[in-house]
Amino acid sequence: MSGTDEALRILRKLGLSGYESRVYLSLLGGASTPREISEISGVPTSRVYDVLSRLAEKGFAVRVSRSSYSPVSPAAAAASLAARIRAAADVRAAEVESAARKLASMLEPTEVPRTTLELLRGLPQITARVISISKRVDRMYFIVRKALEALPELRPMVGSIGRRGIDIRVIVPPDPGLSDRELALAREADIEVRVSAETPFDAAIAGGRYFLLGIPDPAYPLPDKAVAILIDDVPFASTVERYFLRLWGESRPP
């Protein structure tokens, strides 16, 4: 098998069609215009435009002018594809878990769970509650905005939950002011951090059951007068978790 045949086989495994694979290889080979691409790939010129458009949608090419495209490197294209697959899998897993819980509630006679609310005042009480919950769940997702102002006070909590071996993800706003050292510490604690412009509030979702919402109050700046509401409700927390996973799939590394 030639190197080109092997490359075509791998690209097909990554989800590209035969035409898409051949056009992508022609881009990597230096072709940029539809005519050049057609000559190298053997794909009819009438089809090249549609194929290039699909490659751009799949993250394997970028349009640089009206009739010219440039390839995305194989490593970058594969990394982007893998990230989209993981995000879609996370959303699907949350949907399956939610469906399973709903089915169980329909078919299994169980006591209807009650929604409980708990008001937490001050960072010590809030962080102690988060640490306690982290011992009972397999995942914790955070949306962080105003809480960045209290990062020094939150470091002990972050270190504690980061050592539990659970799935921890954090979404922060653009330009969050995190140093390279702080990002390195997060990686060492197996905490994934991503950036999104859509961070409307401080919140935590734990195990698809608990939802912690920070209550902003300009009259009581962090960290002295932090206030949060803890909601123990599976359907509600699952809904917010799906919202978080959508944000995660659209976010970027810091």
Structure write-up:
- With 254 residues, the protein is α+β, with helices and mostly antiparallel strands.
- The chain folds into 2 domains: 3-72, Winged helix-like DNA-binding domain superfamily/Winged helix DNA-binding domain (Arc Repressor Mutant, subunit A); 78-250, 2-Layer Sandwich (Endonuclease, Chain A), CATH 3.30.870.
- The protein has 9 helices and 9 strands.
- The strands form 2 sheets. The protein has a 7-stranded mixed sheet with strand order 3-9-8-7-4-5-6, sandwiched between helices. It has a two-stranded antiparallel ribbon with strand order 1-2.
- The longest helix is centred in the middle third of the chain and has 34 residues, at 74-107.
- The protein is elongated and about 70 Å long.
- The two termini are 41 Å apart.
Q: List low-confidence stretches.
A: none
With helices defined by DSSP (H or I, 4 residues minimum), what is the helix count? 9
Q: Name the shape in a single word.
A: elongated
Total number of domains: 2
The third-level CATH topology of the largest domain is: Endonuclease, Chain A
CATH homology superfamily of the largest domain: Endonuclease Chain A
